[in-house]
Amino acid sequence: MAFLNLYKDNLRKNYEFLREKFNEYDVAWGVVSKLLCGNEIYIQELIDLGVDEVHDSRISNLAKVKNINSAIQTVYIKPPSKRNLKDVVMYADVSLNSELNTIKWISEEAVKQEKKHQIIIMVETGDLREGVMGDDLVEFYSKIFQLPNVEVIGLGTNLNCLNGVMPSTDKLVQLSLYKQIIELKFNKEIPWVSAGTSVTIPLMLNHQLPKGINHFRVGETLYFGANLFDGSTIEGMNDGVFELCAEIIELQEKPLLPIGNLAANPQGEITEIDVSLYGQSSYRGILDLGLLDVDPKYLIYDKNEFEVLGGSSDMLILDLGKNPKNYKVGDLIRFKLKYMGALAILNSYYIEKRVK
User: Fold this and answer.
1) Catalytically annotated residue among 34, 64, 78, 171
2) 254 pLDDT exceeds 80?
3) What is the pLDDT of residue 233?
4) 125 FRET partner, CA 20 to 30 A, in 157, 222, 245, 291?
5) What is the C-alpha to C-alpha distance for residues 169 and 36, in angstroms, rounded to an integer?
6) Is 43 in a helix, a strand, or coil?
7) Confidence at 275, pLDDT banded by 50, 70, 90
8) Interval 310-337 mean pLDDT
9) Can you tell me the distance from the alpha carbon of 26 to that of 17, in angstroms, rounded to the nearest whole number?
10) pLDDT value at position 273?
11) What are the tens digits of pLDDT across the range 131-147?
12) How many Cβ atoms are within 10 Å of 250's Cβ, its own excluded?
């Protein structure tokens, strides 16, 4: 049976590292929980760290956070849809917004629920995902700052998630200037300038973060210790929070090449034949998870030990060569995961989630 381990000591080490750094730079921050896909065991581990602000892109996940600890500030981190505004106002204290009509609907719903809902206006800074264009920002704000039961508490931006545009000091200075312009024009304080996500952390560590930037939304670096500028692990952090374990359910010596007439497999792929491999064999292992659970390109492993050849919906196939590690049926193969691999595994109903 395949399962996922979360190593709580490694998670705490990363959390404490980030907390210390953000305190040093006087920056507020929230933890993004969307990677955990609403797994209540893992959400509890997150809350046990002492987290007081949780961000997620699924309102059902924020509802679980509120059910565990209603005092935690919850932030909905994608533009809300009209059809889930009732739940957004009910379970999210703050939401990221970039559409005027949506904010008007939030105001109406907040009045109905007799709640104050806080808003971060997202500003487009080049990656072309969500965000109000900078030239339109003052007019946009003028139409919402007096709406009942909503309060603009920040300006934010998102980078690197669509087109790979990286944050820079110049882009973040511009975001800070937008805040100053609005505050001067409307005599209204905007407490937060939310610089972005894990990808912006290296700028802070390299002392390149403008002083006006005072809020972060952090997920990937917490869970993987990752420097998203160069792909390295940040010194002082740990890349071993998650570990995927899969059991070998068959291991036999087999030919390197398939035998028979070839057609496309269920994934639409046609095997290419290297005739130089005829007559050769290797040990092949089958693991008890498949493409339904994770794309092999998001698995991290030592390719000197084996190679993941591919798979079907519920099995992955390994080439173990001469099997130098002497693996046997029933043994576990262990993988580290890239972010999208962890997201797929955590979203898989079929993979057991454990805490170590």
Assistant:
1) 34
2) yes
3) 98
4) 222
5) 31
6) helix
7) low
8) 96
9) 14
10) 73
11) 999 999 999 999 999 99
12) 13
Both tokens of 119, joined, read 């808003």
Termini Cα distance of the chain: 17
For residue 264, the model assigns a pLDDT of 73
Distance, in Å, from the CA atom of 291 to the CA atom of 111, rounded to the nearest integer, reads 46
Pick the closest to residue 152 from 132, 168, 167 (CA basis): 132
The owner of tokens 């034949």 is: 273
Q: Which amino acid is at 147?
A: L
| Locus of tokens 């060569």 | 321
Q: In which band, very low, low, confident or very high, does the pLDDT at 256 lie, cut at 50, 70 and 90? A: confident
Range 59-80 average pLDDT: 98
The CA distance from 138 to 49, in Å, is: 39
CA angle 280–297–337, rounded 5-degree value: 120
Cβ within 8 Å of residue 18, ≥6 positions away? 29, 201, 218, 221, 222
Helices and strands, counts by H and E, the chain: 10, 16
In angstroms, what is the C-alpha Rg of the chain?
A: 24
Structure-token match 């290296």, residue found: 202
Q: How far apart are CA 240 and CA 226, in angstroms?
A: 11
Mean pLDDT across the stretch 26-39? 98
Q: What's the rounded Cα separation, in Å, for the pair 276 and 239?
A: 39
The more confident residue out of 76 and 258 is 76
Residues 322 and 282 sit within 8 Å (Cβ to Cβ): yes
Amino acid at 16: E
Which three-class secondary structure state does DSSP give residue 161?
Answer: coil
Q: Is 143 one of the annotated active-site residues of the chain?
A: no
Write down the pLDDT at residue 346. Answer: 98
Please, what are the domains in the chain?
7-224 (3.20.20.10), 242-355 (2.40.37)
